[in-house]
Amino acid sequence: MRRLLMTASVALACATVAQPVVAQVSFGGQAAMITMLDEATDLNGTFGVGPRVEFSPPIPGLTLGIVGQGVYYFPDGDFDFMTYGLGAKVGLSTPMVSPYVIGGWQWRRTSAEGFDAVTEDGATVGVGVGLGMIPVFVEVSMEFNEEDPAFPDVDNDPVVIQAGVLVGG
Predict the structure, then answer these.
(1) Is 142 helix (H, G, I), strand (E, B) or coil?
(2) Does residue 49 lie in a domain region?
(3) Residue-level pLDDT, tens digit, the chain, 169 residues
(4) Is residue 125 a contact partner of residue 103, using CB atoms and an 8 Å limit?
(5) Helix (H, G, I), strand (E, B), or coil: what is residue 4?
(6) Distance (Å, rounded) from C-alpha 132 to C-alpha 91?
(7) Residues 33, 46: contact at Cβ < 8 Å?
(8) Does a structural domain hold residue 12?
(9) CA pair distance 126, 103, nearest whole angstrom
(10) 120: domain range?
C-alpha cells in the first residue's frame, strides 16, 4: 500500500508542477526572388517557391534558431535551378517587429537538358524581420558561391529577397 501511495503522490506532484510544452519547430512556405548585382545574367528577377523549417527554443526577448530551407526557381531559360541550405538565426524578439541576422551554408543545383547537373555550395548571410503576432517574415540575403564555367550565365553572387509564413512554434 505504501508503494501505491508513494507512486500516486509522485504522479500528482509531477502533474501539478509540469509546465505546458511550447512548440519549438515551425514549418512554412516561402517565396523568393533573385536579384543579381550583374543584370546581364539569366537569373535576374527569377521567382521561386519552397519550404522552410525553423527550430527555435523559447527564450524570452531573444531569437536563436536553426533554419533549413529550399527554393525551386522558375527561370526563363532552358534549365532548372534550385537552392537549399542550413543556417543559424540570431535576433531580438519583440511583440510587433523582430529583427534578426541569418547566416549559413547553401547549395545551388543547376541542370539543363544534355548537361550533367552541377551543384555548387557557399556561404550565405542576410538580415530579416518577423512581423507581428502572425508568423510572417521578410528576409534579404547575399549568397557567395564558387565560379562554375559550365553555367556562366547563372554563376554569380545573387541577392535573394524572401518572404513567407510559418506555422507552429
Answers:
(1) strand
(2) yes
(3) 566 566 656 655 555 554 455 558 989 999 999 887 665 567 788 899 999 999 988 888 888 999 999 999 998 878 888 999 999 999 998 888 889 999 999 998 888 877 788 888 889 999 999 887 778 999 999 988 766 555 555 556 788 999 999 887 6
(4) yes
(5) helix
(6) 15
(7) yes
(8) no
(9) 6
(10) 22-168
Residue for grid cell 527550430: 55
Q: Which pairs from 39-47 meet CB under 8 Å and 24+ separation? A: 41/153, 41/154, 41/156, 42/75, 42/76, 42/77, 42/79, 42/153, 42/154, 43/73, 43/75, 43/81, 43/153, 43/154, 43/158, 46/73, 46/74, 46/75, 46/76, 46/81, 47/73, 47/74
Contacts of 46 (CB under 8 A, 6+ apart): 33, 34, 73, 74, 75, 76, 81
Question: Within a domain: residue 5?
Answer: no
Q: Which residue has the cell 506555422?
A: 167
